[in-house]
Amino acid sequence: MRRISMSVVAAALLGAVAIAGPPASAQKAGGTLVQITQPEPPNLAPYISTSAPISQVTAKVYDGLLEYGFDLKPKPALAEAWEVTPDGKTVTFKLRKGVKFHDGKPFTSADVQFTVMDVLKKVHPRGINTFRDVTAVETPDEHTAIFRLNNAAPYMLSALSGYESPMVPKHVFGQGDIRTHANANQPIGTGAFKFIEWRRGELVRLDKNPDYWRKGLPNLDRIVVRFINDEATRTAALEKGEAHVAGFGGVPYNDAKKLATLPSVEVTTKGYEMISPIVELLINTKKAPFDNQKVRQAVAYAIDRQFVIDNIWFGFGKLATGPISSNFAPSGIYTDNVTKYQVPDGIERANKLLDEAGLPKKDGGIRFEMVHDITPYGPEWQRFGEFVQQRLALIGIKASLRYEDVATWLKRTYTDYDYTLTSNFLYNLPDPVLGVHRAIHGKLIKQGTVFVNGSQWSDPRADELMDKATIEPDPKKRAAYYHEVQKIVVEASPIIWVFELNFPTVVNKRYKDVITSPLGLYTNFAGVSRE
Q1: What is the pLDDT of residue 29?
Q2: What sign results for the dihedral spanned by CA atoms 423, 378, 19, 199?
Q3: pLDDT for res 14
Q4: Which of 209, 219, 240, 343 might form a disulfide with 529, Cβ 3.0–4.6 angstroms?
């Protein structure tokens, strides 16, 4: 394991130590948990952006109407009960009484109405699809919210966590433009922890909410979320017990395996069951020559997915066959009966396709040049970018690499469409309507909205099938629709699905009940305690 001196680690964590107080053995009851999140989030506005680092912080600040067990079934949160009519077009939530926002104002049905109708339905990258059929949220009293829908939307009940659909205060965010609101980076929620400060490039501090609606919780006094650029320093901090939890690739994957051998550390891949991430290469299908399907297929054939899993992500993954994770196999939705690009003669097939596309090799064996944008989420992604560059060279495509900060990369990809090929990963979430449609449905080409159809590809038949599947109650018919969707989109290759990622989460064993949900670090940590 890569090691660095104790003095270097101490210096890197000085801000956290100053906040956390004396050593763990001398801390008062409750204590501080230091979480490593990498990279630093671009903002603290989960209702606008689903960038992976954001909710690792904000899920401790914002609650949702519901929470979820490992069986993926909903559990009460801000809503203590709910009822769905037989036709599925009315959902009534009974809200918990006595809940306060962090500024002391009461949480009411008006906040639910505002959050859903004016925020999530309009500006949330996935909310625009999740709540597409919600026509109104009625508020007959302060503790009742009635959702009226055009069509049944059973998937909606899987999308009401504090991570996916955070409830925000109308009295704060109802003033001004939600997209540029002053409180975007000073969040006010009902969660277990209150936002205190964000030291850019260093940390976010969250303190215990003494008025939390779950009496007696949270157990911890404080959470400090650290942003540490150097991967060796992150690993050393966890090894020395100066940081206590990290997931989502915050620790290099080879180091995660080595940390698992320590008696003080547990490494688990639990806590991601509700998101099912798939690593992909996203293609701008509006930019020549990638507006040609054969060129996209050539790149798909050129990528050796198993090499990527084994040598870059150190085995933390499984081959992907398309946009839907094999985690959906038990429901019948998943199929691998699609075009197979992971083949022994992939390079030969790719070169043949490029020849057929009218892109012959010229001087130096180069067909054309392009830029490959690397997802700015850490060293694995840089190595992945270098591997893609090498594989593209084998088929005559000269790719230069560009690595930018998260905010710049997101704007380039989803607002400006100023890219050709970029690496990425997207969550399937608990239903394809929530996690898959956004990437490939024509109606979800929403310029300026992150993580929705950045390829700008659409197909009328695929759109029709997804629309049918959205409201289809028969599981077999629904599965048949999605099987055909997978065949269409994999053949078209607007996205190259590489592998299903199994994130490791590193947890210091002194902290208990850290991963208690299929959303893992995207939960409120109210029940986390320290020995």
Answers
A1: 53
A2: negative
A3: 37
A4: 219
- Separate counts of helices (H) and strands (E) for the chain: 18, 21
pLDDT in tens, 329-349: 988 999 999 999 999 999 999
- Burial-class residue 262 by CB neighbours within 10 Å (0-12, 13-18, 19+): middle
Cα gap 59→164, rounded to integer Å: 9
Element housing 130 (H / E):
helix 127-130
Position 524, amino acid = N
State residue 298 phi and psi, 5-degree precision: -60, -45
Given a contact cutoff of 8 angstroms between Cβ atoms, the answer to whether 294 and 353 are in contact is: yes
460 within 8 A of 320, measured Cβ to Cβ: no
The rounded distance, in Å, linking the Cα atoms of 228 and 36 is: 7
- Determine if residue 176 is left, alpha or beta; phi over 0 gives left, psi from -120 to 50 gives alpha, anything else beta: left
Distance, in Å, from the CA atom of 110 to the CA atom of 115, rounded to the nearest integer, reads 8
**Per-residue CA distances from 431 to 13, 283, 324, 326, 412 (Å):** 39, 24, 9, 12, 28
Q: For residue 170, what are its two tokens?
A: 């109308």
Please tell me the distance from the alpha carbon of residue 497 to that of residue 288, in angstroms, as a whole number: 21
Q: Cβ(271)–Cβ(518) under 8 Å?
A: yes
Alpha-carbon Rg of the chain, whole angstroms? 23
Tell the burial category of 170 from Cβ atoms under 10 Å away from its Cβ (0-12, 13-18, 19+).
Answer: buried
Write down all domains in the chain, each with its CATH number in brackets.
Answer: 6-43+191-270+506-530 (3.40.190.10), 66-173 (3.90.76.10), 277-501 (3.10.105.10)
Q: What is the pTM of this model?
A: 0.82
| Sole residue written with tokens 């230091």 | 34
Q: What value, to the nearest 5°, has the Cα angle with vertex 89 and ends 436 and 323? A: 5
Q: How far is CA 206 from the centre of its chain?
A: 21
Using 50 as the pLDDT threshold, list the residues of the chain that sit under it.
1-28
